[in-house]
Amino acid sequence: EDSPAAKEGLEEGDQILRVNNVDFTNIIREEAVLFLLDLPKGEEVTILAQKKKDVYRRIVESDVGDSFYIRTHFEYEKESPYGLSFNKGE
């Protein structure tokens, strides 16, 4: 709620179409997240988005998405801020 994006009017369910002249219409969520996380802190960002709350709600309610589950047989400690640490059996 107190993020810079929310303060500028971006809401949950909005579809991001472009960020700083980079087309987001055909990239997967992970690529978008990595791109956004890599933006320098404090730098001005231009975002083009459209309201898609109805589509977003249908996706959430239908449980359709890109979630998946993997059981691990080893331990892993993340090596970068984008990594995910996990323990054997998780």
Automatic annotation (TrEMBL):
Which InterPro entries does the record match to this protein? PDZ, PDZ_sf
Gene name on record?
zo1
**PDZ domain location, by residue?**
1-51
Family matches, as SUPFAM superfamilies: PDZ domain-like
Mention any Pfam family matching this sequence.
PDZ
Q: What is this protein identified as? A: Tight junction protein 1
Residues in a coiled coil are: none
According to the UniProt entry, where is the signal peptide?
A: none
